[in-house]
């Protein structure tokens, strides 16, 4: 399998200029489904499987799950900032360095699976309560120098959810892990 396909199993995220109410709803459903998909896939994996990189030079599945928890906690916080402040500047973080911290390399994945589960419960509850005006609110990302609308954030994290789920799912498929 080609490295680009291993890195981006569902392709790269391509933001749209706008999102319909149906697209937002579908993206929220994808975010909502991630915790149970991860739990169902990874629930019986032993340390050898969890400590395997999903691609050459990539993170282990353990690091990947901890990354998703870190990333989605940050996204949830940024989302709330955008809803309560006018175009706040968010705080970027070095996700690659976070994945190298000792807890990301050794902590049981169950800790992050539960974090993902409960953050998603709160986040999905919040997202489902928003109207078109709320979803048009923005934050400024100093890393990309872009102002981002919340409906795009929803789309991005739906993509991010499936992107990382597919890393683990396709690793399992390539190794015939049922």
TrEMBL record:
Entry annotated with the keyword Hydrolase: yes
Enzyme class: hydrolase
Domain (DinB-like) ranges: 35-167
Membrane-traversing stretches: none
UniProt superkingdom: Bacteria
E.C. designation(s): 3.-.-.-
Keyword Hydrolase attached: yes
InterPro entries found in the cross-reference section: DinB-like (IPR024775), DinB/YfiT-like (IPR034660)
Gene Ontology terms, MF aspect: hydrolase activity
Gene3D superfamilies assigned to the protein according to its UniProt record, in alphabetical order: dinb family like domain
Record's keyword terms, sorted: Hydrolase
Protein known as: Metal-dependent hydrolase YfiT
